[in-house]
Specification:
The protein has 206 residues and is mainly alpha-helical. It contains five helices and two strands; from the N terminus they run H-H-H-H-H-E-E. It has a two-stranded antiparallel sheet with strand order 1-2.
């Protein structure tokens, strides 16, 4: 092989090596710059989650009072729903007697007015009673009716008072250290101080 041909081969080989080295360098640079960019694309910074503090509304005794205008609603607001059967049982009992005395009072009143106006007695079971007895029965039932109206109002009022009072006591904390101790002791006697009398001492801790 002639010398010019050897030089051409050497130059071609050197150029190929130089090109390979350049390609490796470019590939390395591409990786070097692309890797941080891809990493940044994958990592997403989440904004901090702000948790709003839960503000608990204070227990309102006036609200309990207003709710108890519907009997039992104030007790539910106070967390004492177990009182509802008691309240409605009491209201139902006095309500029954109030209505019963009212109907009897009205019946005797109508019967008495019918008789004094010259009418014929019509009240079943009382046609043979004199007018004075019918009037007395009217008065008796009328008094009982008025009494049970007052009792019904009192039971309804107790429902309001109960809701309002326990609305104030809703946040009242009672210590767990409750104890009741009963122990014997000797107490001096007023007329004989040198002769103590046995007694019982009651100690209550709260």
């Amino acid at each position: 092989m002639s010398e010019p041909q050897c030089d051409n081969l050497t130059n071609a080989s050197s150029a190929r090596l130089h090109l390979q080295h350049l390609l490796r360098t470019l590939f390395f640079l591409v990786l070097l710059f692309a890797f941080p960019f891809a990493h940044c694309q994958q990592v997403r910074v989440q904004p901090p989650v702000v948790v709003e503090p839960v503000v608990q509304q204070p227990h309102n005794p006036t609200k309990a009072l207003l709710l108890s205008l519907l009997p039992g609603a104030g007790q539910v607001y106070n967390g004492q729903a177990w009182k509802i059967p008691i309240i409605y049982g009491a209201l139902g009992g006095v309500g029954y007697f109030t209505y019963n005395y009212y109907t009897q009072m009205k019946a005797f009143k109508d019967e008495y007015l019918l008789r004094v106006n010259g009418g014929t007695p019509q009240l079943a079971g009382y046609t043979g009673y004199p007018n004075t007895s019918i009037y007395n029965l009217y008065q008796s039932n009328n008094k009982n009716f008025q009494l049970f109206v007052i009792i019904t109002a009192a039971v309804y009022g107790l429902n309001l008072i109960d809701a309002y009072v326990f609305g104030h006591l809703y946040d009242f904390q009672v210590s767990d250290d409750l104890s009741l101790n009963l122990s014997p002791s000797l107490a001096p006697v007023a007329f004989a101080p040198l002769t103590p009398a046995p007694s019982l001492q009651l100690t209550f801790r709260f």
